[in-house]
User: Fold this.
Amino acid sequence: MVQAYILIQTEVGKASNVAETIAAISGVVQAEDVTGPYDVIVRAEAETVDDLGRLVVAQIQQVEGITRTLTCPVVHL
Assistant:
């Protein structure tokens, strides 16, 4: 199982709608509105890195109101 945090910037005033929409996507464990340089932080999981990439590009990035994403895979050292 591959896990990642996805940091999301949104259009002004869209963070709550974006987080709510993303929370309903299969593979998303949690989506929260936050303050700071990012507006939403998502924790997601997938079977493989390729599946994670498809989740981010084909589903999460397609949500209306998102301007930028940064995917940070979790590593276990």
The radius of gyration is 12 Å.
